[in-house]
Structure formats: structure tokens, C-alpha cells
Amino acid sequence: MAKIVDKAIWSIGPIFIGIAVLLLNMCVLAYYLVVFPYLHSWTDSSFFSKVFSILTLAFTLYIVYCIHFHYYMAIVTSPGDMEEYRKADDPSSSTNETSMRAMLLEMEEHSQFPNSCKKCLLPKPERAHHCSVCNTCVLRFDHHCPWIHNCVGHFNHRYFVLFMTYLILAAAYFVVSAWRPFMLCLDFTQLDWPYYFPRPLLAFSFILAICMGLAIGGLCVWHYYLIFTAQTTVEFYNNYYDKGVCKSQGEIFVNMYDFGACQNFKRFFNIGDTYPWYTLFLPVPIPPKGTGRVFEKCQEFYMLPEQRQRDHVKAQREVQDIEDLEDIKDL
């Protein structure tokens, strides 16, 4: 049954993308065909009013472009998988020896005996998890999102979060600026509607913006919490359980990837070292920090006794293995 559901989710992914693009651009048209002309009259306006209108237009176009750019990048950017290992096993590949040697060296940093996926039968780096919908292991896996027909992982998580951020900003701005045209479109005693955009669609766009802002706003706040605490959605539940175990044993739980809120934020968005902070506001491709196979550990983790360190890594592996076995049972 689970396999059927996974195939259905994968099959309807493009439909979800089409619906999302349609709804987004419907709200965009509602703003530029009704809200903007209602709020900014070009005729009989002062010089400063015209300048303000131009700046407002530029700002809204920037937000719209950022939304579409990051949504597109979240869709087309691979989150990171193990396909390189499959290619390395292909005898027709001319770079087999070099690529395999590099991969083994990376895996050796993680462990003397690299973990392997029970489904892929390929090396499984730390923080990677098998996605039953995509049927592959995903680097720093967070979740599978049907709205982007893709997993959210190491290489596209940044675009996914920024897409939600700009979308929430746009939804809030639309609701604040469109409430008067919204009330006007509900007044059917006024038969004269001077806009090309239909009244029912404007009302629907306004309600959609509220619902979308609240729903995606909650999801976005959740992801920023995960960013500041250096966790993925999967790791949050695992760490929550480990905290309870450590508390019952009188020990202190340490998230080995947590460098503090500020550093976690910089590491996630890859700013401060290679890329300056203002790249957060630029709709340009920015790769994540690291390869997604090996992750630096915090100092608090290395201050733990060696046995605690080994137990922590072992527990992480066991969780990965349990998830793989559960997927196998569902086949």
C-alpha cells in the first residue's frame, strides 16, 4: 500500500507544480491589474507620488522574481543523491578510479567502515536518508515535497526556505494592500467594475493569500527553527528521542552539528566566508557549504568521552537502518 502511495505522490508531482504556478500567478495578476492601479494613480499625481509608485512597482517586481526564481531552483536543483556511486561502478566511465578514490576518502572521514543503505546497497553518508518516493538516498534529507516534485535536501534546501520566505512576505504585502479593493469587489450594489480582472477571482486571490500566508508561514517558521538549531525534520524527531534518553540517564544531550544559532544560520545559507551576507537578497544560484557527505562537528561533541561520541554516531546509523528496513517491509 505504501509503495502505491509513493508512486501516486511521484506521479502527481508535475500537477502540483502546475497548480502552484497557476495560483501564484493569479495573485500576481490580481495585484497588477486591480490593487496597484487602485492604490497608485498616475494621472493627477504629484512628482513624489509618481516616484513612490515607481519604487513600489520595482519592489513588487523584485519580490515576484525572487519567488519564481527560488521556486524554480528548488524544483530543478538535485538535493544530492548517490548516483555518483552508481556511475563509479559503471565500467564505461573514464573517471571511475579518480571519482571512487575521492568518494572513499570522503567516507573515511566519516567512519572506518562506511554505512550502507539497505535498499540502495550503496554507501550512505551521515545525515543521508532514503526517500521512498524518489527511491534513492538523499544527502542531508529533510522531507519530500510534492509541490516541488523533489526532495528537500542538501543542495536545494536553501532555495526552498527562501522561496517560502519571499512568498510569505508577498502574501502579507498583498493582504495589507488589497483589503480595500477586496471590500469593493464584495459590494455588488456597485455594478461598475473598472478593472479587467473579474471580481470573484480577486476575492479568491485575497482569501488564498491569507490561507497561503498562514499555512506556509507556519512551515517557514518551523524550518527557521531547524536552521537555527542545526537540524533537519528527520533529525529533530531523532534528537527529541535522544534527549529523553540522555535525561533519563542523567546525561547532557549534544547535537554534534550545532555551532550556535548565528553560526548555524551562516552555515546553512553559506554566507560569511565564501559569499557575503547580501547574497541572501540576490536571486542568484548559491551552492551550500560542503559536499553533503561529511559534516564538521561542534567542539562540545569532541569534549564528550570517546565512548559517548561513538554511541552517538552509532545511534544515528541505527535510526537510518531502521528507516531503511521499514521501507523494505512496505515493498
TrEMBL record:
Protein's cellular compartments: Membrane
Topology term for the membrane: Multi-pass membrane protein
UniProt-listed Enzyme Commission number(s): 2.3.1.225
GO CC annotation: membrane
Major location (coarse): membrane
InterPro entries: Palmitoyltrfase_DHHC, PFA4/ZDH16/20/ERF2-like
TM region(s), chain numbering: 12-39, 51-72, 159-182, 202-227
Entry domain remark: The DHHC domain is required for palmitoyltransferase activity.
Protein name: Palmitoyltransferase
Native source organism of the sequence: Mucor saturninus
